[in-house]
């Protein structure tokens, strides 16, 4: 009889995490979840949460098992605690109990108050052996958007900008300048597909007239967000074309229309906490901030960010709008895309 070792558990959980990643851009606002079913040291079933509103990972994995008679002697690896409540689908904990699986290994407990240990407790009460915390840090990183929304009641905020080798991100009068190379531009479209919403400020919207959609990578368009405090942006700009859902954060009243909603904020409160609160209420779990410099610097100053991706190109401008300054504090990763260097920073707390 095969006895699973710690190395085997790590291997199977890494496989489950790899499966979970396949749901990026499609499962939101649900978490990314992967599941692997094993018996006697071999994989007999796999699945992941493919689409919001669709079957969860455990359901897809169980349904993929071609020898269901093995399930009562199976060891199941799942990246997040099985749900114990009725949502759009029945509780996954109940399914595992119904199939009488022998053991369940879990990467992360679910912080959602509707679950929060209830799934683990239900499995154990049914006599199923449960282990937790396998590759816990990796699981939290994969689902950092979900955990931020659950624990901090705000979206996960990713800042992004491209800067020249001499530290500028636009021309002297905020005119748009092509800075990054082709590979970086493709990567930006991938990043757009991975986040639920994308934000620009008034000046960037005015000067760049961006579409803020996904064109060079497969995936869904993000929710467009724009700050227009005094409703000064031209209605002919791409942001108002109705091509994808758009929220306009403003201090002035204006009637919404299909795919363009005006969200009136209070001038008596700080802008960005209000915006993030509104987005959390709408179940928006992540925002990619593409500028401009005022928005980026404000979020940096207020500590209302989680990750920053800085594309540094070899081009020089000799003057213009200075890029935000991060130094090397919180540097998480560095890699190259063509001729560009990409630096990924994480906000350090405390």
Automatic annotation (TrEMBL):
Presence of the UniProt keyword Oxidoreductase in the record: yes
Record SUPFAM superfamilies: Cytidine deaminase-like, Dihydrofolate reductase-like
Any one Gene Ontology molecular-function term assigned to this protein's record: 5-amino-6-(5-phosphoribosylamino)uracil reductase activity
Enzyme Commission number, as recorded: 3.5.4.26, 1.1.1.193
Catalysis: reaction(s): 5-amino-6-(5-phospho-D-ribitylamino)uracil + NADP(+) = 5-amino-6-(5-phospho-D-ribosylamino)uracil + NADPH + H(+); 2,5-diamino-6-hydroxy-4-(5-phosphoribosylamino)-pyrimidine + H2O + H(+) = 5-amino-6-(5-phospho-D-ribosylamino)uracil + NH4(+)
One Pfam family matching this protein: RibD_C
Pathway: Cofactor biosynthesis; riboflavin biosynthesis; 5-amino-6-(D-ribitylamino)uracil from GTP: step 2/4; Cofactor biosynthesis; riboflavin biosynthesis; 5-amino-6-(D-ribitylamino)uracil from GTP: step 3/4
GO terms of biological process kind: riboflavin biosynthetic process
Keywords assigned by UniProt, alphabetized: Hydrolase, Metal-binding, Multifunctional enzyme, NADP, Oxidoreductase, Riboflavin biosynthesis, Zinc
Positions annotated to bind NADP(+): 162, 204, 208, 292-298
Positions contributing to Zn(2+) binding: 56, 83, 92
CMP/dCMP-type deaminase domain segment(s): 7-131
Cofactor annotation remark: Binds 1 zinc ion.
Entry's family note: In the C-terminal section; belongs to the HTP reductase family.
The protein's role, per its UniProt record: Converts 2,5-diamino-6-(ribosylamino)-4(3h)-pyrimidinone 5'-phosphate into 5-amino-6-(ribosylamino)-2,4(1h,3h)-pyrimidinedione 5'-phosphate.
Name of the protein this chain belongs to: Riboflavin biosynthesis protein RibD
Organism: Hymenobacter lapidiphilus
The gene coding this protein: ribD
